[in-house]
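dumping these here so i dont lose them again. two proteins, back to back, each one seq then structure tokens. dont judge the mess
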Amino acid sequence: MIEFVKSHPGSVLSAFELYTNFSYNPRYSQLDSVYSLLDSTAKASYYGRQLNQILQTAKLTAVGQPAPEFSCADPDGKPLALSSFKGKYVLLDFWASWCGPCRRQNPAVVIAFHKFHPKGFEIFGVSLDDTREDWLKAIKKDGLNWPQASDLLGWKCAPAALYGVKGIPMNYLIDPNGIIVAKGLFGQDLDKKLAELLPG
């Protein structure tokens, strides 16, 4: 794919291929390097503009950057701000009741929570649900006993848009100072990273 893009820097197909392959969980440095291969014609195309938008969001949510602040309603309708977790490691976890991969990932997240919560680890779940009943039922069934929030707007979820989330599950690990230290941690990767940051 990269070779094709290098050979056809002005092709809309090149922009499309990059968009298709790099829109989910983009790494800023990687995306920036492949985006720079496109010429002005490809960058001005629909997919080129989409790539640029993803690139700008990825830059804001890259590892080492301050986690963008937001507030969203909890199950009781009260605003819950990301900044309220400052001082602890927090996993910002985007998921939904209707998302099969999310539900399959949840048991590993539950295990990590119970293992590391006593050491100062928190989770802030943000759901892309659009039905309150389904959302609350999934929280209870999966044992997600940590703060949850949702604006119940599905894929129009404001926090998800802020973080450029194009697919779920997706998560961001944020340190006590509010800096993103990792993203896209699933299964054993989450446990390993937390063990590294919260030993003992």
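---- next one ----
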Amino acid sequence: MISSVLALALVAFAPQQTQPAAQSQTQVQPSARPNPCDAPEFRHFDFWLGEWDVAGPNGNQVGRNVITPIAGNCGLHENWTGAAGGSGQSVNTYHRTDGKWHQVWVGNGGGMLHIIGGLQDGKMVLEGTTQGPNGQLLHRVTWTPLDDGRVRQFWQTSRDGGTTWAVSFDGYYSRRKE
């Protein structure tokens, strides 16, 4: 009894099609609106796009990184795999409201970092702070496109608000040959 009542209810509330299918369906054309992310500011970090082998200053491989465009070219997605087993991902985008680039990084060790900045003399420079057991740590990460097609990522940290800096990472990105 319940199943026949349910079947009757479904038939009663089902949309009625009074026109042939070919006449009732109209083609909706996508909007011809321009992509706001076609603005030049959104291309400032494009030099980092690609598949990379990453070596330290001594030439030893420290990892691999894949940087791809996302969300209609409105951002970049980073997928890092370290040679020692670490991994992490970041999302990077230009934020029109504040006129700055933002990166949010999440590592497999549970860490998260939000750094902000922009293009300075052809280099992407982003900074931010984290709070740790020993106080606040200031991060400055600089990506430099090199004349030979590589990209250098130079990461520094400061425990004294930027008076002194220590090198956390110095990596040279070479495009993967595979």
